[in-house]
Amino acid sequence: MKIRIQSLAAITFILAMFALQPIAEAVVPLPDGGYPGANTAEVENALLSLTTGTFNTAVGFFALKSNDLGNYNTAIGAGALFANNESVFNTATGAGALLLNTGGADNTANGAFALLHNQFGSENTAIGTLALQENVDGSSNTAVGVAALTFNTEGGGNTALGDHALASNTTAGATPLLVRASSLQTPRATAIQRSVLPRYLAIRSDLRTPRLA
C-alpha cells in the first residue's frame, strides 16, 4: 500500500510539472509552425505578411515573406518566393528560387536562384541552379539543367534539357526541344536521333554530331 501511495504521488508530481511547463515556455506559433488556414511557417520571417492566404508552406529565412493573400504556395529555402503576395500554386525549392515572383502562377522552381527574376510568367518549370533565372514574363517554358534558358526573359513555350541549353535565348518562343550535348553520351545521342526525336533534337557541334532540322 505504501509503494502504491508513493507511485501515485510521483505520477501526480510529474503531471503537475507538465501542466505548468506550457505556461512557462509556450511559444506562438507552436514549434511545428502551424498557423490558421492550414499554413505552415518555419524559420525567421517566413510567411511574415500572411493575412487570408491558405494552404501555404514556407520553410527558410524570408520564405514567402510578402505573401498575404496567395494560396497553395510552397517555398523551401532562404528567400524562396520572397515577393509573392497574391499568386497561387507556385513551388520554389532552393535559396532565391522564384524570389521576385509577384503575379506568376503554377510555376515550379527547383534549384538555387531558379526563376529568380520571374514576375508575371506562369506555368514554367525550372530545375537546376540558375535555370530560367532572368525570366520575367515568359510562360510555359521547361528548363532542366544548370543555367538552362537562363537568359530567357519573355520567350514562351520553350523546352531545354541539359546544362546551359538555350542559355542565350531571350525572347524567342515555341522551341520544341533542345538537348545540350554534354548531357548525353554520343552513342545514346545517336540512338535518340534515329528513333525518339528524329526532327526536334539539336545536338551541339562540340560532339561533331550534325544538327537536325
Chain-wise SSE layout:
Blueprint: H1 2-25, E1 34-35, E2 39-42, E3 57-59, E4 74-76, E5 91-93, E6 108-110, E7 125-127, E8 142-144, E9 159-161, E10 178-179, H2 186-194
Parallel strand pairs: 2-3, 3-4, 4-5, 5-6, 6-7, 7-8, 8-9, 9-10
Antiparallel strand pairs: 1-2
Please describe what this structure looks like.
Helix content is 15%, strand content 14%. The protein is an alpha/beta fold and 213 residues long. A 10-stranded mixed β-sheet has the order 1-2-3-4-5-6-7-8-9-10, with no helix packed on it. Strand 1 and strand 2 form a beta hairpin.
Largest sheet: 10 strands, mixed
Oligomer: single chain
Mean pLDDT: 77
How many helices?
2
What structural class do the secondary elements suggest? alpha/beta
Q: State the helical fraction.
A: 10-25%
Structure, briefly:
The chain is α/β, with parallel strands linked by helices and 213 residues long. It has helices spanning 2-25, 186-194, and strands spanning 34-35, 39-42, 57-59, 74-76, 91-93, 108-110, 125-127, 142-144, 159-161, 178-179.
